[in-house]
Give the backbone structure.
Amino acid sequence: MISINHLNFGYHKKYMVLENLNLHIKPGHIYGLLGRNGAGKSSLLHNICGLLFPSNGTCLVAGETPANRKPQFLQQVYLLPEEIYLPNVSIKNYLAIYAPFYPAFDHDMFYRFLTEFDIPKENKLQNMSYGQKKKVMISFALATQAKVLLMDEPTNGLDIPSKKQFRKIIAGIIKDDQLIIISTHQVKDLDSLIDYVLVLEDKQIILNQPIENITEKLAFKQVINLDEVASPIYSEGALKGYAVVAINHKKENSRLDMEMFFNAVLSEKQLVLSQFN
């Protein structure tokens, strides 16, 4: 559904944010996009939805070139940005203005999510807290039923119960003909949600792997002494001993620790990536 080949993008011609980037992803999955601050995650999402344009290379989304911004394309792609700016209107009036842009918009779904997030539907947007506004916009984004849903730091501003509710809602709505990309630094919010990991580093996508491949190749464990682990790749001091990422020689079953994995990629990039080549 998304096919990007040799894409270059920069805000100045002498400095590329994305360079020779390739990415091919398919519907029916939730992708977690990880990267350092300033790595270009938001720039990539904006290129995918047609708000920014590549200087070279090709970007096709659902068979369309985003930069052309055709109505039939814009109806099928939705970006929820990290920073949201909402007009001083009621929720009902916001829907009346913006929902018609999305032919598949489901009003019942929107109000159901509002109820699950404990947001009164009579509220005026400007009278809400940042977290409440974020929950309204998450509900709106999901109710568009866009084929490509892009979310940039969606859990920023959400309290712990709301993050749990967010994960529950997202996991229950993905369809076979949809894909969701979630960009975040709060990687622990994604551990139980995503099924593919994308890592953006050095201006390129350096890793694109399903969760099951990662846990097949790597073992995530807690140990008292590092001597207990054969072929450790990365470790951090924990409350009792160490948290470790190791080569999974024994084919052990372990649960992916997204934060540990990302730190391992940054710290031991070549060693980690060699496990997937």
